[in-house]
């Protein structure tokens, strides 16, 4: 009898063990299936984001076609190709005291610079930054510009002896105004609409320079606005002051734009007298470029459809800092939902749009530690994922790489488009030709994997011989200093 009991116990143990083993095998198979599904999604993303050289050249050619169309007529292209009325870029000979006002968001900056002429360069520079009270962002035009003019007057009152203005000479100001404006001359332009949280109805359709000038008069300020510019044109001017061979400027930050120097006779929509210099700076507004050759994924389409401006700024949504982190978040969310990438429960934080910012992406992409400790910390701190395996972390880095690589390579294709349009994509005279692109923006400055990839791609597209004649230079704080320099190059006293 005892033997039977023992046999029965042994049998039960064997069955239980077999069931447990089968359960383990089942769980492992389930995990493997999920992992295979996740890897399939990553592979598909990589293929859809592919930017082989042939495709990039098609993008550059499409950019050139759109540039021609935008220069031919207003509304002729998705690229606005705005005439900036800047026909004299700084030469380095500028001399004297000049001011700049840089208004581009909830803060504005006021700068003063002392220029020393041909050999003196930038002698002295000072600036202050001022926050705009929220009530003034939705008040009246007079209230906003009176506040700005009062702060400008305070700053001017602190002028030291080293900043000398000859007697009888009026102070001159460059005004960087980074909102949509229809420019009508170098020192006038009407506000098309507000962005960035501003909503001042009585300013729309008004000349912003006239509004500022009236406010300065009310403050008793004897000052003239010599140049109204947008931040990309300012960056071009700032770059030109430091590097005489600058032909274009690109901003790669939260948003993206480009400006370049065009031959005045190559602008069919220009109806005035040709400028003496024979040149005109064009503000491309290239963020709005689109083409069938752009490698768009389901995630890009979904992000665009849910954005505040569906169908607009497609190029910007692929290449700029505002969007790169959001694209990665959308891919990770789908992997979490369809392939349990972070386990059985989808992390609730992963469902929050724009929770993953591009600086986070950059930090993870640049993580060189063997156990990817930075990635681990970011996943914990931002998405509250605390048990991601090393294998999972490696996939996150791979997704950062896929999205950033696509963005940087497309930005390089855009630059190639500009170089093609102005005939700098070939070498005419090896000894003479030098071409400089001025670059600014946090994405370019701080995301080194992005900027390295951009430069390598441009070299690949141009070939060794032409690449030697092209350089990309960081033009830091172009929008402020550039405005002061443009006030100098368009001075009444030249």
TrEMBL record:
Subcellular location(s) of the protein: Mitochondrion outer membrane
Just give the chief location class: mitochondrion
Q: What is this protein called?
A: Phosphotransferase
What are the alphabetically sorted keywords of the record?
ATP-binding, Glycolysis, Kinase, Membrane, Mitochondrion, Mitochondrion outer membrane, Nucleotide-binding, Transferase
Q: What is its EC number?
A: 2.7.1.-
The text of the family note is: Belongs to the hexokinase family.
Domain of life, per the record?
Eukaryota
Upper lineage: Eukaryota, Viridiplantae, Streptophyta, Embryophyta, Tracheophyta
Which Gene Ontology terms cover its molecular function?
A: ATP binding; D-glucose binding; fructokinase activity; glucokinase activity
The residue ranges of the Hexokinase C-terminal domain are: 248-488
What InterPro entries does the record point to? ATPase_NBD, Hexokinase, Hexokinase_C, Hexokinase_N
Report membrane topology: Single-pass membrane protein
Q: Matching SUPFAM superfamilies, A to Z?
A: Actin-like ATPase domain
* Pathway recorded for this protein: Carbohydrate degradation; glycolysis; D-glyceraldehyde 3-phosphate and glycerone phosphate from D-glucose: step 1/4; Carbohydrate metabolism; hexose metabolism
EC primary class:
transferase
Gene source species: Populus euphratica
| Sequence ranges assigned to domain Hexokinase N-terminal in this UniProt record | 42-241
């Amino acid at each position: 009898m005892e033997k039977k009991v023992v046999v029965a116990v042994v049998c039960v143990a064997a069955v239980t063990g077999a069931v447990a083993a089968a359960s383990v095998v089942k769980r492992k198979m389930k995990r493997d299936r999920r992992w295979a599904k996740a890897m399939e999604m990553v592979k598909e993303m990589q293929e859809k984001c592919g930017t082989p050289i042939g495709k990039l050249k098609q993008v550059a050619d499409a950019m050139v076609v759109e540039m021609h169309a935008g220069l031919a007529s207003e509304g002729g292209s998705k690229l606005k190709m705005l005439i900036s009325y800047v026909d004299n870029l700084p030469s380095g000979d500028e001399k004297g005291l000049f001011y700049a006002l840089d208004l581009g968001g909830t803060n504005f900056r006021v700068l003063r610079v002392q220029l020393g002429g041909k050999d003196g360069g930038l002698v002295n520079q000072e600036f202050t930054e001022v926050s705009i009270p929220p009530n003034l962002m939705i008040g009246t035009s007079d209230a906003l510009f009176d506040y700005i003019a009062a702060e400008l007057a305070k700053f001017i009152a602190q002028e030291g002896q080293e900043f000398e203005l000859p007697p009888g000479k009026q102070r001159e100001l460059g005004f960087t105004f980074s909102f949509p404006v229809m420019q009508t001359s170098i020192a006038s332009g009407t506000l098309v609409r507000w962005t960035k949280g501003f909503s001042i109805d009585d300013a729309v359709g008004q000349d912003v320079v006239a509004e500022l000038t009236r406010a300065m008069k009310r403050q008793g300020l004897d000052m003239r606005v010599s140049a109204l510019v947008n931040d990309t044109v300012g960056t071009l001017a700032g770059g030109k002051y430091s590097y005489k061979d600058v032909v274009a400027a690109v901003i790669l930050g939260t948003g993206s734009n480009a400006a370049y120097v065009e031959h005045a006779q190559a602008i069919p929509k220009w109806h005035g007298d040709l400028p003496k210099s024979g040149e005109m700076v064009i503000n491309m507004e290239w963020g709005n470029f689109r083409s069938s050759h752009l490698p768009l994924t389901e995630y890009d389409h979904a992000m665009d459809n849910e954005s505040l401006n569906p169908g607009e700024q497609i190029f910007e949504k692929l290449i700029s800092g505002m969007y790169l982190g959001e694209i990665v978040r959308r891919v990770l969310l789908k992997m979490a939902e369809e392939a349990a990438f972070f386990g059985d429960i989808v992390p609730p934080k992963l469902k929050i749009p724009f929770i993953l910012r591009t600086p986070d992406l950059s930090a993870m992409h640049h993580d060189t530690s063997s156990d990817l400790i930075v990635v681990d910390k970011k996943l914990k701190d931002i998405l509250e994922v605390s048990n991601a395996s090393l294998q999972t972390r490696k996939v996150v880095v791979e997704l950062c790489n896929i999205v950033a690589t696509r963005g940087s390579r497309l930005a390089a294709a855009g630059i190639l488009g500009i170089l093609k349009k102005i005939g700098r994509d070939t070498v005419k005279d090896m000894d003479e030709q030098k071409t400089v692109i001025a670059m600014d923006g946090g994405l370019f400055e701080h995301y080194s994997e992005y900027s390295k990839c951009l430069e390598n791609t441009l070299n690949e597209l141009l070939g060794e011989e032409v690449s030697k004649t092209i350089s990309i230079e960081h033009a830091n704080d172009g929008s402020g200093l550039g405005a002061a320099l443009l006030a100098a190059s368009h001075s009444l006293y030249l």
